[in-house]
Amino acid sequence: MSIKTQVIEIAGKSEKAANILANISSQVKNKALLEMADELIRNMDYLTTENAKDIDYAGKKGLSGAMIDRLTLDESTLKGMAEGLKEVAALPDPVGEVTSMWRRPNDLLVGRMRIPLGVIGIIYESRPNVTADAAALCLKSGNAVILRGGSEAINSNLAIAKILRDVLRNVNIPEAAIQVIPTTDRQAVSEMLKLDEYIDIIIPRGGEELIRAVVDQSKIPVIKHYKGVCHIFVDESADLDMAVAICMNAKTQRPGVCNAMETLLIHKDIAETFLPRVAKKLRDAGVTLRGCENTRRILPDIETATEDDWYEEYLDLVLAIRVVNDIDEAMAHIEKYGSLHTESIITSDYNNSQRFLNEVNSSSVLVNASTRFSDGFELGLGAEIGISTTKLHAFGPMGLEELTTTKFIIYGNGQIRT
Amino acid sequence: MSIKTQVIEIAGKSEKAANILANISSQVKNKALLEMADELIRNMDYLTTENAKDIDYAGKKGLSGAMIDRLTLDESTLKGMAEGLKEVAALPDPVGEVTSMWRRPNDLLVGRMRIPLGVIGIIYESRPNVTADAAALCLKSGNAVILRGGSEAINSNLAIAKILRDVLRNVNIPEAAIQVIPTTDRQAVSEMLKLDEYIDIIIPRGGEELIRAVVDQSKIPVIKHYKGVCHIFVDESADLDMAVAICMNAKTQRPGVCNAMETLLIHKDIAETFLPRVAKKLRDAGVTLRGCENTRRILPDIETATEDDWYEEYLDLVLAIRVVNDIDEAMAHIEKYGSLHTESIITSDYNNSQRFLNEVNSSSVLVNASTRFSDGFELGLGAEIGISTTKLHAFGPMGLEELTTTKFIIYGNGQIRT
Predict the structure, then answer these.
(1) What does the DSSP 8-state code read for residue B222?
(2) Which positions in chain A touch B113 (Cβ < 8 Å)?
(3) Record: fold of B3-224+397-409
(4) Cα–Cα dist B242/A207, whole Å
(5) Which of A243, A173, A191 is nearest to A33 (CA)?
(6) What is the C-alpha to C-alpha distance for residues B18 and B14, in angstroms, rounded to an integer?
(7) What is the mean pLDDT of chain B?
(8) pTM of the predicted model as reported, rounded to 2 decimal places
(9) Sequence ranges of the domains in chain A
(10) What is the distance between the alpha carbons of residues B397 and B410, in angstroms, rounded to a whole number?
(11) Tell me, what's the ipTM?
């Protein structure tokens, strides 16, 4: 069977499964999720044996230690995956919720009911735990999922999917609700991205390169963010202790993630006081600073930030710093160089807080809090399937609700249109 | 200047305008809309003169009378356009609405605020009134719009846009908020559909061929429906008088639109009684009937419906009829042949009404009402920019809210992540 035929067959099965899945009760979906959690633990030996094949191959291919680390399934990662499944089971089911309902003058009762999107394609890189996480969120939201992980994790991903699918069969949910593309051939992705008649949405998870490749090829709508160039603007009225604490948290608590701060903007009137304080703390934590000319007047021993730095997502202990004249210049900088991801203002000024919240065009805008809160769990969505900086459908962290849409339901008693 | 450069320049201006437009108050937007309504009437001579160029050219090209009719701007169509603008001014502004807000355990206050999508591209066919309608809805929802109408209406569209843009300038809204692509060259559409860095969403309005061509080329998400193959299922428990009235309305009130009924499904146990009654009425109204074998046992003189008929959007006084064993067979037919647009059940049975509403996977699902109500105005959205049968972002008729998205706004008092 050609790869094209194989992928079309998978997508066709997904579509059929999705139609059934849309009407399966929360009770049954939750039962499946809890059993899946148990089965991952019960089948630890099988999963680690399959995972060992991937690790062995990764070693031969000369992948880095960090990569192999992310690839590894052990008791602790499997327990984490099982916990994740239980947490998804505990979340409220978005499907069937009637989000609003109103009566028309002709007595038609019109409502919007949440329904699953249908078939979701997830394209991701090395971590095999995404297989269980994404499958759980799609199942709970009534969607069929087609998973395409990295070639380096193929044995692990197929083994995890096997366990999950065995449970589906036991609880009478179509197994095709969760499918992993069984080949590592790149052509499978290209074929998958053509199938807009079967697949409703593609969510790529990984580096910018992966995401651009998916967007370039896809005929299916893609929900994505390329990068997170997150800013903090410390306004002249900021509580400077708070500003230092938030900047430290946003830059150093986990520098390799998309909601870490990459550029710090500072109001000129507090630069002389604030910059040396925050710079000392950041450098003590190992952060390399790059500054504009005005920053370097105050911190002469740091590197110059070039035009490229303002666009950069370092994902590392590096920070670009710019002194600005006022909030307008700060917001203009964000508009020009930002990635629509997450920005925060530190201020005690009411008007500036409101202006920043209203005028900054990013998916998460904060006042007096760390950019690190831009996250599905932290914002209270209960889960996170991804973050979107595309405004269509969802903007910002996406939880279960964002894996649904609404249809109109209309109760009449014989109305005709005149 | 090449067409490519020209289109990129337009899109760049749109993006800049969109950033300003997002924060213009309802008051100013409404003032603009009301002035636009006045100016369309005041400039009737100019508009009809420009329109005459299009009509003249259409005559030379040999376009049909119906086409020329749709193209014509006269006092009555201009008054209709002006009324439309006033109605949009009177609608509530979706921008800035905080749709929900909740407090997290760490005291962060998290909300979702409605914001415009950004830049909207509308690609449409001959009717020049779409230029004013679409521009008004985009303006009200804070979006910049790039309009690309049919080549046969280019002078009319440019003239309408000129009037609207003159008003924008008067009220200090960037003129680039409303732009018409000034060339009729097809390359302009191809170039436009590549600009996913500038344009957030494309809404094509027209026949299936136009829409498919747009989808095939677009790198930008497209909100669309290809066709409306709408079904009515008359259940065995239906009130037959009501069923006749609704079927007549759905098929004959305006057969050329996407929410007209195209296929009638009838429960076998009432077919003998119901079919002759409804058939007589339909035929009196000039409807040609095509039926399945069981239908033809009862109505032997009608044509046979072929497999192709079940997929057909006639947009005409033609109806396909099928007798089904039960609601399951009716829903299976809809799933197989339907277009996810609009379906209605006529029933007095509680369980069947609920099953139909829950299980039918279309964007509008009705009980005991005509499919003709699947329309933004009729459902109470206040306006309609289009209908989506794509589940992403919006599903069903789209009003002003569907031209927005939400961003997260977060009020903190120094929270850092631990």
Answers:
(1) B
(2) 357-358
(3) Aldehyde Dehydrogenase; Chain A, domain 1 (3.40.605)
(4) 58
(5) A173
(6) 6
(7) 96
(8) 0.93
(9) 3-224+397-409, 230-378
(10) 31
(11) 0.94
